[in-house]
Every structure is written in C-alpha cells, then in structure tokens.
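Priority: low. Protein: purine-nucleoside phosphorylase. Input follows.
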Amino acid sequence: MLFKTWLSSPELQKRKMSLRECIYCFTPGPANETRAEYRAMRMLGGDVVGSSTIPEVEVARHCNLEVLCLSLVTTSATDEKLPSAYDAAKAEVEGRPPSLPVEEDHLMTPTGFTFSSAPSTRLKDMSLLLEKLIGEI
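Result:
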C-alpha cells in the first residue's frame, strides 16, 4: 500500500522522495554501535539501526494489530575506513595525529557518523505521505 500510494501521487513524485523497504535492526539505546556490530548487522541483512520502534511493534502485534512503520533516517554510519585502535594508539605513541577521513560536505563526529539535513527538508514529505496513506485506509 505504501509504495502504491507513493507511486500514484503526482504530488509525492514531484517531491523526489526516496522510499525503501528496509530491514530495521533494533539495539537498546541510546548507543553508538561499533564498526564490528555494524558489519555483523549488515551481514545479517540489516539496513537501518535504531533504538525505538521494535518494542512498540512487538506489543502491537501481540495485540493482533496491523503495523506500518515509517522511519526518517537522519544519521548514517560512514563506510570510510577509520583507523583501528592499534593504528590510532601507534600514531599517538609516535607523536602524530591519527589519519581520519574528512568530508567537506558532511559534519563528522569522532565515531564516524554523518548527519543529514533530512529532518528539516523532509518533514513536509512525511506529512504529505501520511496524509495520503490515512486517506486510503
């Protein structure tokens, strides 16, 4: 129903939204997952990681309710090769800064995340999509 609504709406098509069906991996949070955890989740088929939604879905399904989840992804783990703990320690012992990737277009934190401007630019997209979906229910 979600993709049909999106594809059949000229209004939504003009907004150039990007919709994907994803596997949502739940972790208790707030937490910053390690690179190894991200790799493991990716190997298991995960696309998105978060610390909400799943407990609520479990309760709803336990009550035999149908569920549709929409997530606005605003933070993504970079695929950049960050130095290992060994390389970072070696650089520190040798008196040089560890080499970290730098992207001019993105704000990067020391944990290797990039933050998107999606919350401010996509609020209208989500509102319009929800309005159309509710109208079809």
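The first helix runs from residue 2 to 7. The two ends are 9 Å apart (CA to CA).
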